[in-house]
Amino acid sequence: MRLQYHLEAGGAEERERSKAWMIHFLTQASSLEESLALKKIQVVYFSSLSRQLEFEATSMTVIPLFHLAYLLIILFAIVSCYRCDCVRNKMWVAVFGVISVALAVVSGFGLMLYIGVPFVLIVANSPFLILGVGVDDMFIMISAWQKTSFTDSISERMSDVYSKVAVSITITTVTNVLAFYTGIMTSFRSVQYFCIYTGTTLLFCYFYSITCFGACMALDGKREVVCLCWLKKPETPDQKCSSLKKSCCLPCNSLQDKYTADIHPMNLFFRDCFGPFLISTKSKIFVVLLYVSYIISSVYGCFQVQEGLDRRTLASDDSYITPYFNVEEDHFSTYGPSVMVIVTEALDYWDKNARQKLEKCLADFENSEYVDKNLTEFWLQEYVKYMENLHQDINDKTAFLSNIPTFLMDFPLFAYDINITSSQEIICSRAFFQTMGISSSTDKKLMLLQFRDTAEKCEVPLMVYNPAFIYFDQYSAIVENTVRSVVVASAAMLVVSLLLIPHPLCSLWVTFATTPVIVGVTGFMAFWNVNLDSISMINLVICIGFSFDFSAHISYAFVSSSEPSVDRKAIEALYLLGYPVLQSAVSTIIGVCVLSAANAYIFRTFFKIMFLVMVFGAAHGLIFIPVFLTFF
Known about the structure:
Blueprint: H1 12-37, H2 50-60, H3 63-81, H4 91-114, H5 126-145, H6 154-182, H7 189-232, H8 243-246, H9 255-260, H10 265-278, H11 281-302, H12 321-331, E1 335-343, H13 352-366, E2 377-378, H14 379-389, H15 397-402, H16 404-410, E3 418-420, E4 426-436, H17 441-457, E5 462-465, H18 469-500, H19 504-527, H20 534-560, H21 566-593, H22 601-631
Antiparallel strand pairs: 1-4, 1-5, 2-4, 3-4
Helix pairs in contact: 3-4, 3-5, 3-21, 4-5, 4-7, 5-6, 5-7, 5-21, 6-7, 6-18, 6-20, 7-20, 10-21, 11-19, 17-18, 18-19, 18-20, 19-20, 19-22, 20-21, 20-22, 21-22
Membrane topology: Multi-pass membrane protein
Main location: membrane
Protein name: SSD domain-containing protein
């Protein structure tokens, strides 16, 4: 059995009173649920205020997860940049790099809040993403710094670092920011706000990386020089090293040779093991077969993706909203929402021609397969019968208007369906149609489109509305908005790559690499039970930028290489940027992995898709793109 209570919400005072009633109702219903559960009676409840309250509660649950993500990123940065070498060790530089990202988050969010950009629940995902992505530039800059020579001055080494990585970092930043800002074109406000927050914060990350973090590296370079001088300084006349200096794991007599050619072990792995293995003939054949399998699986998955956001996923898993929607679906799914059809302008209802036009439109609604015509509620139909019983002329304006007050007293149900002014003019009125047979997302979309089409064709100005339409709209708009955002963002990627990557064919390959990553993420969404909705749409826009990042870094290093053969170019590209790309992917996965423990669908979905983006993006950057560049 279902009970429904309709509250008054006319003026500000009534709205406040209704809000207070609902808050009290939720408290009482919670107590009732617990007491009746002992008697094996299930009680579920919901109010129009529930979603907002549950949203606020859900957003608070991710704050501890952000602290955990921040700690994990710092630990990963320290471990990946640590060296058993007091000179080359970049532990504190890595820590400052993570702090720099945190400052960018504060700056970006502070600016957006200051200028009044609304903060919606979905924006709470952004810091996790930025935390993982923001350290990418740090890893690339540290990798380039460690390939410089100690014999050069600090300014020369900084110049060498920036000449190698600044363009690459700029390309990826511009493409990421453009990918997010193209998301502003969507018709979903939550997506727009997320893209504005994240795109702006990534700009701050870029500026902080090339200024604050660069200055930190320069200061650490001075520390390296001082530390090296201390290691070279003899303790005794026989040039022997002290036990403290020996603990630095360095033979004092080979310091100069070591520091003029120091290479990180992971860079050596990509140069001496992974690169030669990848460009061998057998490996290339295997990579091509693997790529074909990946594309076939992804395309198949794309046809299995479900559209639309399930209302049950908008709150935490243990919310009282979830069992309410479960019961509604199990026992009350035959009938859908009661749709309001509004006559939006003043109409001469007493005029027979005007009334016939309106009745024809309402008949069109009732003839829909999604409407139960026996449950239509329209005040005018009842009023015509009322006037006939009184033997009044329904076509007489004076009689029509003078009898409305007594009609509303006898039929108070319709009191809120007529907006009549003090001058006795009906400026607006409404009818209700009971929908049915719309349990599937396809039926909801078709019903919505059919109702709006019927309203548009009517000679009388009509509008259809129900609060559930905010969800039904996703079914009709999500695919179009997603495709448009992906196409526009990809076009922006192509323009940027043509301008900044010094080889047109390479630019095309980098842009092309975004397509299979998007297809792969979309396809594997279906295998991981993720629907195509506004949340996953955000991630697909992100997908464009990140899939471009990994491919752009490797491709730029490939075309910039001075090696004579394409195979050697691929190996050098992996040697220079393979490890930073791997660090970037892992750091981002670590940044969002804590969301897998979240108690809400929104955050878990963000983790799932970002995981797919990072895995497929890194696979293209480290495996597929190097091999395909050697072919073409």
